[in-house]
From TrEMBL:
The lineage of its organism: Bacteria, Pseudomonadati, Pseudomonadota, Alphaproteobacteria, Rhodobacterales. Transmembrane segments: none annotated. Keywords: Hydrolase. The keyword Amino-acid biosynthesis does not apply. It holds the Pfam family FGase. GO terms for molecular function: hydrolase activity. Gene3D superfamilies: Zn-dependent exopeptidases. InterPro entries: N-FG_amidohydro, UCP029730. It comes from Sulfitobacter noctilucicola. This is Putative N-formylglutamate amidohydrolase.
């Protein structure tokens, strides 16, 4: 069996290629639109359930290909971010959002403290534990999270095609942006379409900064991920940037020792 097909999973988190020999830990917080039946679709219609509000279309497909290319472990949520957004801490309103862009989320309009506690225990804590385990198993590991974003947000077209996001540790992002400037035909921008001020770097802070690991969040506009061929092309491009950036950081570290 191909190593990538060896995976462990339960109802809320999936660990793909757990024995990956590479130093990169891939994370996909918004991999699935699945809402457990007991939530009654959070009161949403089909348009909302299939939209970017419920998940990051194409992100998991890209992350899976990158896991193959980088021989990386991949940790992915199996539950919609509308049930619990694993890229938000429990105290954040956005962990169980009552509004996501143009979509009101009726099932999150009046979540009690008890229900917040239950969702945190059921969905966030297992995910956080799986990421922490993957990071701790790789003492020299690098954290890379994979996301996609909608081309039109609140009626405004976004020109950025690929975003390289970081919090206070810019090392990996700087190196990746160098590779992108040299090789990419895409519109690649730093901390776009979101940045730390938007509260999107929780995973980077929780598992990267806290453990002093190089870290970066990658955002790809989802109209670039509409089919397998485009997903493959983007994934190979991103894998090349990550591999080059990791090698650059490792070289810099060895030269300073």
């Amino acid at each position: 069996m191909n190593q990538l097909n060896q995976q462990t999973s339960d109802e809320v988190v999936e660990v793909i290629n757990p024995g990956g020999a590479g130093s990169v830990v891939l994370v996909c917080e918004h991999a699935s639109p699945f809402i457990p039946p007991e939530f009654n679709n959070l009161g949403l219609d089909a348009d909302a359930l299939n939209s970017h509000a419920a998940w990051d279309p194409g992100a998991l497909a890209v992350a899976r290909i990158m896991a193959t290319e980088l021989d990386a472990v991949l940790v992915a949520s199996r539950v919609s971010r509308l049930v619990y957004d694993c890229n938000r801490p429990p105290e954040a309103a956005g962990a169980m959002p009552a509004q996501s862009e143009i979509f009101a989320i009726p099932g999150n309009a009046d979540v009690s403290l008890a229900e917040r506690t239950d969702r945190t225990a059921s969905y966030y804590k297992p995910f956080r534990a799986a990421v922490a385990k993957a990071i701790s198993a790789r003492p020299d590991g690098t954290l890379v999270t994979i996301h996609s974003f909608t081309p039109v947000y609140h009626g405004k077209r976004r020109d950025v095609e690929i975003g390289i996001l970081h919090d206070s540790d810019t090392r990996l992002a700087d190196a990746m942006l160098e590779s992108a400037a040299e090789h990419s035909v895409h519109n690649v921008q730093r901390n776009a379409p979101y940045g730390p001020e938007d509260g999107v770097t929780h995973t980077l802070k929780e598992h990267g900064l806290r453990n002093m690991r190089p870290n970066v969040m990658i955002e790809v506009r989802n109209d670039l991920l509409l089919d397998q061929q485009s997903q493959q092309q983007i994934a190979l491009e991103l894998s090349g940037w990550v591999a080059a950036a990791v090698a650059q950081l490792e070289k810099a570290t060895s030269c300073s020792d």
